[in-house]
């Protein structure tokens, strides 16, 4: 596969996996479970561009223009970035016959980003330590990122099926 084809595959898988993650978050919301408001990610990014990395409570920080849109763009860009890493490490063989293990490993590893970077920067502390229920929040993050990993696998399976059907023909 060419670099362009590999990137397109990673882009497709990353978007698909992020959609799966978002569907999971929607289910949680419908069950009354609080989930991340991506406007807060956009707010954090807006303040980051002004030189401020860390906040006591991002929800109390001054809002920034188009913060919700920016947060969603960042959310999908990060999902694609993690997919690019998976595809780069696993290669064409995995793209043609995806397996669940590597995708779940990426899902688990990616939980480090919110627990050790984003949450502390937004005022929730490392591993959600400044929230009322740190363990519950860490478990929610881990499960959500496992769902992302499952989404990587499912999206790769769909893409592999499309590739096989195109190469075999009608």
> What is the overall number of helices?
6
Spans of at least 5 consecutive residues with low confidence: none
Structural class: mainly alpha
Strand content: under 5%
Distance between the termini: 22 Å
> Overall mean pLDDT score?
94
- What's the main sheet like? none
* Helical coverage, percent range: over 70%
- The SSE string, one letter per element, is HHHHHH
Number of strands: 0
Outline: elongated
Rg, please?
17 Å
Number of domains: 1
What do these coordinates show?
The protein has one domain. 75% of the residues lie in helices and 0% in strands. α1 crosses α6, α2 packs across α3 and α3 runs antiparallel to α4. The mean pLDDT is 94.
Key terms:
membrane, mainly alpha, elongated, 6 helices, 0% strand, 170 residues, transmembrane helix, DUF2938
Short description:
This is DUF2938 domain-containing protein. By secondary structure, the protein is mainly alpha-helical.
Per-chain topology:
Blueprint lengths: L2 H28 L7 H12 L17 H30 L3 H11 L1 H11 L11 H35 L2
């Amino acid at each position: 596969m060419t670099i362009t084809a590999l990137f397109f595959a990673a882009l497709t898988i990353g978007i698909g996996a992020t959609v799966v993650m978002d569907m999971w978050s929607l289910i949680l919301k419908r069950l009354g479970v609080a989930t991340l408001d991506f406007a807060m990610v956009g707010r954090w990014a807006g303040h980051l561009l002004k030189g401020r990395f860390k906040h006591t409570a991002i929800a109390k920080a001054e809002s920034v223009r188009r913060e919700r849109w920016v947060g969603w763009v960042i959310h999908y860009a990060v999902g694609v970035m993690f997919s690019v890493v998976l595809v780069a490490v696993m290669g064409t063989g995995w793209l043609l016959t995806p397996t669940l293990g590597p995708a779940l490993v990426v899902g688990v590893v990616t939980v480090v980003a919110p627990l050790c970077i984003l949450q502390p920067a937004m005022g929730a502390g490392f591993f959600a330590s400044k929230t009322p229920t740190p363990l519950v929040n860490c478990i929610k993050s881990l499960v959500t990122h496992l769902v992302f990993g499952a989404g990587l696998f499912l999206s790769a399976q769909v893409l592999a099926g499309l590739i096989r059907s195109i190469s075999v023909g009608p």
